[in-house]
Design goal:
388 residues, 15 strands
Length: 388
């Protein structure tokens, strides 16, 4: 496709895997990646259900700051995969910010998400649309979704998975029981011996406490990644209701409104241009939304090509104006696939004091906008209930 990206993968003097890549501007969305096969056969991978984290020890140098890396754990399942189509392996993916110096990054496995284009393109049924890591046969580490043109260097020292066969609570209860039984026995035999055992167990408990404190701090940092959409960088649906309730507490929900927005004919775009282009259009659409809203508005990627915008400080008229502004911006934006892209928007206000009801009303209005020809804004009215 006219690209001029060049790269090479080799083993350096320290025995690390190194990728040197020169991203060129000849292709609109260039990328480089390292693919690691974990088994000789794509059908026989590793089962990660007893693991909680993927740890990557690596260093990444890019021509611009804040460049990200994408990590895909590719799963084979006969229900949706075939050996002659590499794309049929499920894309469990996440995107994160690496460091220039060699360091370890811990990625929680429950933060990985299945890419929406893969579900759409392969027409995956609902029961197989969620993350699946029971037969991972391929690990891919690639440059981010919007990399900077120039020289990129990725050095990978170690990739490993961490987990526990038993929970921390079970382990702590077992250790406590052993300690009490041992202490009781040793007290009956010799006080000095029991004292030495007590001191040793106390030091062990202190070490466990220090480890638990470090894990808690790390969990707080990773929770931010867990509530962020890996592709667009927007908020995802996880825990969004709690944040909205806090925002509404200061305004009593008097002016709270919501917009449900859906990209028109997005499946046809994936079919005609491919899933990579679909992902690029979703990233560009997220940028259009960021430029259109104010700092008090909250943009959420609701799923696939659908977005929800919560406006705690806008009344229905102001929210309708914002919806028309977004619809117009879609018409005038130059999109990566060099073709027209439109959207439909449904608008609603707080009714019955329920955030869920407000979202449902906006979704009904969005359905009406699609019924009426798409590329339009519809505002929810009570009369919808009788006709939808």
């Amino acid at each position: 496709m006219g690209g001029d990206t060049h790269g090479r993968v080799y083993i350096n003097e320290e025995g690390d895997v190194a990728l040197e890549c020169e991203l060129g501007a000849g292709y609109r969305w260039p990328f480089c990646e390292v693919a690691i096969s974990v088994s000789p056969s794509v059908t026989r991978g590793i089962d990660l259900k007893n693991y909680h984290s993927m740890v990557i020890e690596a260093a990444y140098k890019a021509p611009a700051p804040d460049q990200r890396l994408r990590v895909y754990l590719r799963n084979y399942d006969e229900a949706y995969s075939t050996t002659d189509d590499p794309v049929s392996l499920k894309f469990n993916g996440i995107e994160y910010n690496p460091t220039e110096s060699m360091s370890e990054i811990v990625l929680p496995l429950n933060s990985f998400q299945v890419l929406s284009w893969w579900i759409s393109d392969l027409d995956i049924p609902l029961e197989h649309a969620g993350p699946d890591m029971t037969n991972i046969s391929l690990i891919e580490i690639a440059t981010g979704s919007a990399p900077t043109i120039g020289s990129h260097e990725l050095t990978i020292k170690n990739v490993r998975f961490e987990g526990m066969m038993v929970t921390e609570a079970e382990l702590f209860r077992a250790l406590t029981f052993i300690w009490l039984a041992t202490a009781t026995f040793l007290l009956a035999v010799k006080y000095t011996q029991s004292r030495r055992v007590y001191d040793a167990e106390r030091r062990r408990a202190n070490r466990l406490k220090a480890i638990n404190t470090a894990l808690k701090q790390q969990s707080e940092t990773l929770s931010i990644m867990a509530t962020t959409d890996a592709l667009t960088g927007l908020r995802n649906r996880m825990d969004i209701y709690r944040e909205l309730e806090k925002a509404l507490a200061s305004t009593n929900g008097k002016n709270c409104t919501a917009l449900c927005m859906d990209i028109d004919h997005f499946k046809k775009i994936n079919d005609n241009y491919g899933h990579d282009m679909g992902d690029k259009l979703l990233v560009s659409a997220a940028d259009v939304l960021r430029e259109s809203v104010s700092s008090s508005d909250v943009i959420v990627r609701w799923g696939g090509e659908e977005f929800v915008i919560f406006c705690p400080n806008r009344n229905l008229a102001q929210a309708s104006f914002l919806a028309e502004k977004i619809r117009s911006a879609f018409e005038t934006t130059e999109w990566p696939h060099d073709a027209e892209l439109t959207c439909s928007v449904g608008v609603s206000s707080m009714r019955e004091g329920s955030i869920a009801a407000m979202i449902a009303d906006a979704d009904d209005a969005l359905y009406r906008a699609k019924q009426n020809g798409r590329n339009r804004v519809e505002v929810f009215a009570e009369s919808f209930i009788a006709t939808v």
